[in-house]
Amino acid sequence: MEVLNAPGVGNPSPAVKALAPYWIWPLRLPVSARRATHNFAGLAQPFCEGWRWIPASIVVGTFPFLISYVTGAPGHQIVSALLLMVLCLPCARAEDWVKGIAIMALTYMAHCAVVIALAYADPQHVAAILPGAESYWQKQIHWIQTGTDPEYKLSAWVPAHLMLLGAAFLFSYTSLGGILFYEGFFEVDLMNFYNAQLMAQSSNHALSLALGWHVWSWLRGLGYLFIAFEIISLSLRRMTGVSTAGRLRWSRFAVGLAFLLADGLVKVILLEPVREQMLFNLK
Amino acid sequence: MSDNPNDQQEWPPDPQDQNPSSGQPPSQQPYQQRQPPVPGQVYLPPGYQPPPPGYQQPPQGYQQPPPGYQQPPPGYQQGQPPAQYNQQWQNPQTQASTDSNSGVWGWVIFILIFGVGNLILYSTTGWLIIPIPRR
């Protein structure tokens, strides 16, 4: 809906008028900034039309990492996060939640595939461009071999994840998803490096990958896809003042929360069986 | 933050309201045969409203005011400089310049709030309140 680009916006008119909503109380953007936000959200529109979102998502998920890999320069996670934000915003503007979630999912999947492959083939080089990945792998292998990890106790795990959820709400809203996507790339890269090393030290690579990318982590990722899109969409509507009807909005938000709840339940049930299988699979 | 707390947004007319007489396009409306006019009878277009009491026809040579023209405030006298009231109409060059300035300021405000604001927010609180829990 090109409301703010329509000629005559801002001029007195007998058309129906509505006060600009607060973005973050008491912050209410002036018309010029709302128009700029609306235009910013449409920057990547040509890359979202038709099936172009598929190659665009793959490029966003892989290209910055490949450049970092070749050059050794840091910062691929923030570049991918910003590009993904720009790619998602036209979908949020058009309330096209299916394409929006598909873009996020494909971007992260393409990113994970490339990072795991390169981390498996060239771990030392990749570890240098994935901050914290090596220490995360050491913690994980210690947990697999001993079964003890204070961070996996419910008393530590539940507060940490509730805090993460709160931070996801806040930063998705303020940054239109940019900061949440950055954190997402950061965390999946920890997992990617851990999985690549686990594969290298396991007998059955496919089983190692299936177990190492834990099923509860998939559920959490899916949950955050739904939640991120809804919060980005909400924030964009409040920033631009453009609102469209969407009765399914709360349903999709609830689906996201349900995935996060399932993440916790499945983890409690399957944590030890999965660890044992990974242990048996080690060389 | 708003420079004008009464900022208002104009919404486009609902497409369904384009044809107020019917919810169907003309091609789907049943054909109604018109009766021939009776001598002296005047057909009024749909939606016609009679003028209010006291309405007078404009004089010969009257022209419609330009788009955006607003009536001067009460007390305005002929010959008074137009800057003393909020004149909405501007010539096209001035209008384009104003739009351009408004657009630039819109981007500046957006970058300040969105870019710089998030940078400050994340650098001051993000590292503290975003945990990196074990997967």
Concise synopsis of the structure shown:
The complex is a heterodimer of chains A (283) and B (135). With 283 residues, chain A is mainly α.
Low-confidence stretches of chain B: 1-32, 83-89
Quantity of strands of chain B, as a count: 1
Order of helices and strands of chain B: EH
- Helical segment count of chain A: 12
Report the sheet with the most strands of chain B, covering strand number, pairing sense and barrel closure. Answer: none
Strand content of chain A: under 5%
Major interchain interface with per-chain residue totals: A-B, 61 and 37 residues
Distance between the termini of chain A: 58 Å
Largest sheet of chain A: none
Characterization of the model:
The complex is a heterodimer of chains A (283) and B (135). Chain A is built from twelve helices and one strand; from the N terminus they run βαααααααααααα. Chain A is mainly α and 283 residues long. In chain A, helix 4 crosses helix 11, helix 5 (97-121) runs parallel beside helix 9 (178-200) and helix 9 runs antiparallel to helix 10 (205-212). Residues 1-17 of chain A have low confidence and may be disordered. With 135 residues, chain B is mainly alpha-helical. Chain B is built from one helix and one strand. The two termini of chain B are 40 Å apart.
Search tags:
heterodimer; A: 283 residues; mainly alpha; 12 helices; 74% helix; globular; B: 135 residues; elongated; disordered N terminus
List the topology elements.
The complex is a heterodimer of chains A (283) and B (135).
Chain A: E1 17-19, H1 31-41, H2 45-48, H3 53-71, H4 76-93, H5 97-121, H6 123-129, H7 133-146, H8 154-175, H9 178-200, H10 205-212, H11 215-240, H12 249-281
Helix pairs in contact in A: 3-4, 3-5, 4-5, 4-9, 4-11, 5-6, 5-9, 5-11, 7-9, 8-9, 8-11, 9-10, 10-12, 11-12
Chain B: E1 8-10, H1 92-129
